[in-house]
């Protein structure tokens, strides 16, 4: 039996606040903590809290999937490993595989690792996927009227889910990162700072990006931030951009782009680059 537990009111309010900070696919009443699992050295077990922050009961199905990151940061399903790709699913197990949670309750999902003998050095990754199953009793019916005046009922049962990476590092040496190809692009929607994050080494990198602007003779001001940016192995590069706030005169100064470890990892500066604006 897997126990669930109820959050007090203060914790539920905190959960609602944190949900607003999660990626879109992790919303709709589904929260995960932590949002990534990394096995290093002799670690063999980890746990993830699955939280139903919605106002109705929900059933979640849990599975392991393999995914590949594109240069733009999007994920695609990966049926077989490509060159230099290493999936972790064969050495991972987890429990439970499905759970129904009442509003404001959480379930601990335990993830276990068993490394095979003579495992090749490197970083292995799969994704733990949490799928919120549709509630048949609350399915939405959409009526459409055709040319022959017949009514066609369509039932929409949408599946909502979120995934987190599960990374196994075995005898890895680490990674380094550089920032480059900075450019300011302006359009009718405003200005964007585009750039590239280059990764080298045998491990993925993960951190936060910030862009600051220093006008000539003025003080530096932070313009934009993005948290939880990853470049996974074997990708050598990721293309990204940050939207610049409206009303800032981006001229005659310097844009300073910084990539740091997450605060909980120490916040060390991993890479930085500048762009001079005439």
From TrEMBL:
Entry-linked InterPro entries: Ig-like_fold, PapD-like_sf, Pili_assmbl_chaperone_N
Top-level taxon of the source organism: Bacteria
N-terminal signal peptide: 1-28
The keyword Signal is assigned to this record: yes
Matches recorded under SUPFAM superfamilies: PapD-like
Pfam families xrefs: PapD_N (PF00345)
Residue ranges of domain Pili assembly chaperone N-terminal in the record: 29-137
Keyword hit for Glycoprotein: no
Key words, A-Z: Signal
Protein name, as recorded: Molecular chaperone
Naturally occurring in which organism (per UniProt): Massilia rubra
Phylogenetic lineage: Bacteria, Pseudomonadati, Pseudomonadota, Betaproteobacteria, Burkholderiales
